[in-house]
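To: structure desk
From: M.T.
Subject: fold request, one chain
Message: Could you run this one when you get a chance? Sequence is below, nothing fancy, just the single chain.
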Amino acid sequence: MAFNMFCRLTASVLLSSGLCHGAGVIPVDSLRGTPGQSVTFATSLTPTSEPFLALTWSFNTTTSVITSTDVDVVGENYQGRITLDKTTGSLVLGNLTREDSGEYELIIIPHAAQPIQGHVKLEVLSVVYNAAMACPTENLIEGISTLNLTCDADGVVTKRVWMRKGKPLRPGDRFAFYDGGRVLSVSPVHRQDTGMFLCNVSNAISFDTAKCKLKVFYGPDEPFIDQDPVGAELEDSVTLLCSADSLPKAKFTWKFKRTVMYGPEYYIEEMGKRHLGEYTCTANNEITGSKVSVVHTLHDSCVPLSVSVVLCTVLTSVGLMLI
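Reply: Done. Structure tokens follow.
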């Protein structure tokens, strides 16, 4: 009954005086709170010596929080949760829930004065916690595998920022975002994706981070054969070393004529003519399944130029000598 009386009173006053006055009576446009805590809707009004003729707070236009005339009528969902300062119109709302988010309106009918009206929005945010990201369990192969990372957290997440190597990831190239940034898609993965991916989740009152450490298998790249010494002659000891960039480390196989050897190094204790020719090194990555080969020709650095002249390159402490 009191609320209906207030509505009739407010309607008659507003119709007679035009639009409500008192813009800025609530000095802020919005407030934030957390579940279980309280928030104060403070006004800028100076305390009055006598109560207002009528005062009401409403939620999202249609729900009454409290109506105060000669009696106070508290809305059904606000019993035991509010405290009203009848001299300023300020309201304290306690035991907040996420359902309290919305717009609150204050209307005051003073004695012998124009109506006062104010609005404020409330956002109730749960603290973000338990940020988590499920890392892939299958092997990721460069140029072949695609990857979807999902970033979840408890609470109200209003912002997600994906990070790699200290920099935010942007859509484009191999990266795409779905479900409001909750899912990061990488297609295809690259060796540079090896390392830590971060998903920073936050809202206006809290922050948390989910992590996932990735390992992208790749290679082998084209092998490289290093010969020591470079200018080997007959009867010299010679080492051929095969290397290739790969994750995991590549395994190597040497083939020379009918000889097969395993490992990155092919050692010849004393080079003879039978050792001259083409050596094939094959690098194998057991996870990616790739094999790459390279051929190296071993020859005697002492090369005959004619029947009577032989040119040999001899490296000495003073430089190159012709013999």
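Reply (cont.): DSSP finds one helix and 29 strands in the chain. Let me know if you need anything else for the meeting.
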